[in-house]
Description:
five-stranded mixed sheet
Amino acid sequence: MASILERLEYWVNKNPQKLLYAFLDLGGRETERYTYESFLQRITTIAGHLRTVHRFENKDCLLLAYRPGLEMICAFFGCARAGLIPVPVYLPGVHGFQAALNKMAHVARDCGAAAILTNREYDATLETHMARNGSSGCSPEEAYVSKLKRIVTEDMRSAVAEERFGSSETLFLQYTSGSTGSPKGVMVTHGNILHNCSLALDHSSPVGVSWLPQYHDMGLIGYYLYLALSGGTTYGFSPVDFIQRPALWFDAITKYRASASSAPNFAFEYCLRPGRLSKETLENTDLSSLRCLMAAAEPVRSGTYERFLQTFQPLGLVPKHFYVAYGLAENTLAVSSYGRNVLSVSKNGLGVRRVRATKEVSEISGSQRIVSCGRPLGDIVVRIVDPDKHVGLDNGNIGEIWVSGKSKCLGYWNNSEMTERTFHARIIGESQQEDGYLRTGDLGFVHEGELYVCGRTKDMIIVRGQNYYPQDITAVQISGLTAGRGEGCRWRPAGD
């Protein structure tokens, strides 16, 4: 069975002293770093403690609850080396503690977590919150989480005799956001990661800069897994530090000559706001090293995409290296990429799930501009399907996006019924893909070979036979923009 550890060890043997990971503070100073060799030593130590000291058994699930930093990545690989299944989770914090704790408890119950791995800082924070709420009565969620053993991996420093533990086909569980239902654990395999990695990266020895959350697929897989498996280097920092000081993003790209970085639409919009980036920051910014600046994770607005390119092209951003992608955790990460075109289509046509390009000036007021998500990557197959009748649709029709290929994950943990319905769908009247298709729940269409995403099947609002997309209504209500300003792709969290 293929393993990401074999790929990591290949790079350790080839470039043992090359920098693999570095983590930065708000001022851009390194607080942690690992070479390929020192990282392998660290994860070997953690794996040994998990199996020989704590006596976890093969395929046990362990929650990863860490403040942003490299210890979570060490714990992730340590679990994999020990034949255990890591489960990254969103941290309950000061704001919305109870809701986040409820979600953590649901994840812990669903996967049957054997323990929580964490670092000293967050372990103390969680203990404080539990104690503070204890006087008013402990909720069932708090009671459940409090009973789980918490293990601080930073305390695992002594060497443990090297062993080769049994491996698990499932590398880790990526839980969905739960915005449209209970969070579900996507079973991501070693093979999924290796296949999708080979498609997602288009240059050798990548240098990445990422502030994306480490518990989310785009940050974890895209920058802490893929770059390690490609012989690259990742410079990371906290999402909170990006919000406090967005200049840190551009400073790091410039200083380390980054070749890859990614962000959701809001981040590009955030950096375009007056006063967010100082004149000095812009004068010292050089984005010419970037081979990939990817917009994903949420609907990409054509106006944001075009204004960001216009603003930063004079600072070295090459237009062909700034593009839009689409993916989801159920397909490991990426489905399509390199989207750069903006298509103007009739809003009335979208309302009846038909695509009609608009080119005349007189049609502008009744049009919507959508950013392409590019072409399907490698051997990934994308089909547009009627979500109710399960029949394939021709180009020019809007339907649900169905996907097949080796990046498609095993299914949902402990949920065979939903796995069968979501991961093994069949198109009526056609010769079938051997393992069926993944139903993404996203609506879209193909135009001139490129994928465009319109919205979610569950979010669609139907009024008098017309389909309306919530993001457009939100744009009108909140931003004061006309619906004609349009939406683009989304690289969404799994199962939204």
